[in-house]
Design brief:
Elements: H1 2-29
Length: about 80
């Protein structure tokens, strides 16, 4: 067991140092990269998209930590007029 400690430990240390070096190199190359700005929506602008309604009624009841608590369900329904 003691004979494997140094080879395995050195392999892990070298791989970790290599991963850190690769992360630093990738951050150095992507530092000046310009990304497109996302337009921010404010309430004074006209909404051009259709309504989005989500419903999560087909989720099974969650398992609770204690057996004497009532079943807790997640989700519900969504509706609205636009």
């Amino acid at each position: 067991m003691d004979q494997l400690l140094v080879p395995v430990g050195m392999t892990v240390v070298v791989l970790c140092l290599l991963a850190v070096a690769l992360c630093i190199v990738s951050m150095a190359f992507s530092f000046g990269l310009k990304r497109p700005k996302i337009a921010e929506y404010t309430l004074d602008q006209r909404w051009e998209n259709g309504p989005t309604l989500f419903s999560a009624t087909e989720i099974q009841p969650m398992a609770l930590s204690r057996h004497f608590e009532p079943g807790d369900t997640e989700g519900g329904s969504a509706s609205g007029k636009w």
